[in-house]
Design a protein that fits this description.
five-stranded antiparallel β-sheet; 322 residues; alpha+beta; 22% strand; 10 helices
Length: 322
Amino acid sequence: MTIPKLHVAVLMGGWSSERPVSLMSGEGVAKALESRGHKVTRIDMDRDVALRLAEAKPDVVFNALHGTPGEDGTVQGMMDLMGLTYTHSGLATSVIAIDKELTKSALVPHGIPMPGGRIVACEELYEKDPLARPYVLKPVNEGSSVGVAIVTADGNMGNPISRSAKGPWQEFYALLAEPFIRGLELTTAVIGDRALMVTELKPKSGFYDFDAKYTDGMTDHVCPAEIPEDVADACKDIALRAHKLLGCKGTSRSDFRWDDSQGIAGLFLLEVNTQPGMTPLSLVPEQAKHCGMSYEDLVEEIIKEALKDKQARKDTQAEARA
C-alpha cells in the first residue's frame, strides 16, 4: 500500500516526565515526513490541543507523545470523539498497556511469561519489604523506566527502606513490587504483524533507566542480540502475541529480562510500550534499519498502518449497514 501526499499533524511534547523525549521523537518524525513531500503541522500539546487539531484539519495525526496523557488513552479518546485518524494504539489498548498490572491481567492468562509481584502502598515500604531482596519497585503507569528502583541487600536505602532515602516512594502513593530478574535486558519491536529482531541493552553503569536510554554513550546496543536462536525466537513470538492480544496498532516494543542460567524458562516480558521512542537513540528505528527500513520508511509505514485501520473500520461499518 502506497500513500499519497498527506497533511500530517505531529503531536508531541506535552507535560509528562517524558516531554523532552517526545519533542525529539516528534521533530524527527516531522522532518522525515517533510523529506517525503508531506505537509506537516507540528503541535506541541497544551490544554488547547483539541482546538489546535480542529484548526489544522489533518488527514492523519502522528502521535509522538510519550507518557500521560498522550499514551494512556486520554488523548486517544479525545481524537476518537473528534473523528481523527491517528497512529499507534487506540483508547482501550492504551489504557491497559500503560498500566503494568492491567497488562499482566490481560497477558498472563494467555501464557505470556511475566514476573510475579504485587501493588504495595509506599507507606508499607517503611515497615517491611514486600518481597525478598533483591526486588524492583516501579510506578504502575509510567514509561521509559521513570521512577524505577532496584532494592538490594547491600544498598543504601535502609532496611526497611528509610523515609529519607531518595526513591520513587517519595513521589508515588503506591508502586508495583516485582522480583528482580538477573541476567540480560532484551527488547523486540513489532511493526504491523511482524516482529523485527532482538536487541540486547548493556548499560555502562547501573541499569537501563531513563538516563541510560536517552543519553548518548551510556548504553551499548547489541543488535541483533548475541543470544541463542531459540531465545531470540521466543522473544519475537511473545512480542508479536502480546501486540495482538493487547490490540496494539502500528508499532510496539516489548521489553524483556532473561536469566540466561535458566534457558527459555528464564525469559520474562516486563512491559509493552505502545508508543516507542523515535529519537536517534531509540530502539525501534534501530531495529528497522537493521531490517533494511530507513527512518523515513518506518515513519510512513506507521502511517500506512493507521490508514489501513481506518479503512478496516469503514468496511466494517459498511457491512453493518448492508
